């Protein structure tokens, strides 16, 4: 009876999981299929499926800005991840292990909690004026800087939680053996939280890759814009190129999917860090 009861209890759970998977997978599969269809076939009420690469050829045709926008997004994402990992790891280590005074930690934690709650649109005017004064409008460096500002609080707090899970005895033993604080950080503590760094990197990469508002307001479009802005520009006042939008969406999804597959084991290990207490 226990086995039957367990089986009966699991059927609704399995059905719910299958429904959730279908809700997620069907739109992705449908969009991918539309990427290989001409626009006339997409808007045609009659079903006419045929494999066609014209949407991808038009996106990557010479003179089109899509390839530049794709490279812009790659550079923005890589730069944001590197800065968030470097600064976030140092900040998380300091907050977790160095016991800074409260007049430093309290404002830092309040600011880290406040920035994610503020709608980004309210920050755009001030950021636009500041980027203009620094000469960083329409530049990759400016977009990297702004994406770092928006994602750094999350990265720092998450890294602090991973450093909290490292026993203090390891750091103290390294210091007793004559290692400096910097050496103890790089050689002893940081390798232990490598799975957490992978988790922070993938989440930061997703946020930077999918960011739209900053790219829209801080660039003039065209070859200076990131990929998300380029996809939105395919919606014209008198025409919507559905096939090219689907093809661009398929191309945009590939890097994040590949990154998630490569870092899957590290992400799972990072997310479960601290779940089991010794």
Automatic annotation (TrEMBL):
Localization per record: Cell membrane
Annotated membrane topology: Multi-pass membrane protein
Major localization class: membrane
SUPFAM superfamilies: MetI-like
Top-rank lineage group of the source organism: Bacteria
Sorted UniProt keywords: Cell membrane, Membrane, Sugar transport, Transmembrane, Transmembrane helix, Transport
InterPro entries: BP-dep_ABC_trans_perm, MetI-like, MetI-like_sf
CDD domains on file: TM_PBP2 (cd06261)
Transport in keyword set: yes
Family, per entry: Belongs to the binding-protein-dependent transport system permease family.
Protein name (Swiss-Prot/TrEMBL): Multiple sugar transport system permease protein
Species in which this protein is naturally found: Tessaracoccus oleiagri
């Amino acid at each position: 009876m226990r086995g039957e009861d367990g089986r009966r209890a699991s059927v609704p759970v399995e059905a719910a999981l299958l429904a959730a998977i279908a809700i997620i997978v069907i739109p992705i599969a449908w969009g991918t299929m539309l990427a290989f269809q001409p626009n006339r076939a997409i808007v045609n009420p009659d079903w006419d499926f045929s494999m066609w690469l014209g949407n991808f050829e038009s996106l990557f045709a010479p003179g089109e800005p899509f390839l530049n926008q794709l490279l812009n997004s790659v550079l923005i994402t890589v730069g944001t991840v590197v800065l968030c990992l470097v600064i976030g790891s140092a900040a998380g280590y300091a907050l977790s292990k160095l016991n800074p005074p409260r007049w430093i930690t309290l404002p830092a934690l309040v600011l880290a909690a406040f920035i994610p709650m503020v709608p980004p649109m309210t920050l755009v005017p001030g950021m636009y004026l500041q980027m203009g004064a620094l000469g960083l409008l329409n530049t990759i460096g400016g977009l990297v800087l702004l994406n770092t500002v928006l994602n750094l609080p999350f990265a720092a707090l998450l890294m602090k939680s991973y450093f909290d899970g490292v026993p203090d005895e390891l750091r103290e033993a390294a210091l007793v053996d004559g290692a400096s604080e910097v050496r103890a950080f790089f050689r002893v503590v940081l390798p232990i939280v490598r799975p957490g760094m992978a988790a922070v990197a993938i989440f930061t990469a997703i946020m930077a890759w999918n960011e739209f508002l900053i790219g829209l307001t801080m660039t003039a479009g065209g070859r200076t814009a990131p990929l998300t802005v380029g996809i939105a520009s395919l919606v014209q006042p008198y025409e919507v190129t559905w096939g090219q939008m689907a093809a661009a969406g398929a191309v945009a999804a590939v890097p994040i999917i590949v990154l998630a597959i490569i870092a899957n084991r590290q992400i799972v290990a990072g997310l479960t860090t601290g779940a089991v207490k010794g």
